[in-house]
Amino acid sequence: MRRPKRSFTPEQKANIVNQIETDRKSGLTLNEAIKKHDIYVSLYSKWKHQLAVGIHSSLRNNKAPADTEKKQLKIEVQKLRAIVLSQSQAIADLKKEMNLDW
Predict the structure, then answer these.
(1) Which sequence spans correspond to the domains of the chain?
(2) Alpha-carbon gap, residue 22 to 15, rounded angstroms
């Protein structure tokens, strides 16, 4: 039977990694220490690497920074398109006034 998907906060992840490290220093094997927290070795390794690199924010479950930047860029593109449209309309109106056909 598959275990239900769980999510951990960045603080929980950091605490679990630190507790596993403490358990290992007290004599437990890596597998024994990880079993206490009911996670996989690969997940522990991923979290440990992220902490070692100092990327605490990368432990977050969401992809907020990339999504936020993407949303901001989409909004900027929409604004620029609106500006281009209004300028194109203004140019077309001026051409009509001057009776210029390009």
Answers:
(1) 1-61, 63-102
(2) 10
- pTM flag (> 0.85): no
Q: What is the pLDDT of residues 29-57, one digit of tens each?
A: 999 999 998 999 999 999 988 887 776 55
Neighbour count for residue 17 (Cβ, 10 Å): 22
The answer to whether 23 and 33 have CB atoms below 8 angstroms apart is: yes
Instruction: In whole angstroms, give the CA distance from residue 99 to residue 102.
Output: 10
Q: What span, in angstroms and rounded, lies between the C-alpha atoms of 100 and 92?
A: 9
- ∠ CA 54-59-63, nearest 5°, is 120
Alpha helix stretches (DSSP H) within the chain:
10-25, 30-37, 41-53, 64-98
Give the separation between CA 89 and CA 91, rounded to whole angstroms: 5
Per-position b or e across 52-65, b if 16+ CB within 10 A of its CB? eeeeeeebeeeeee
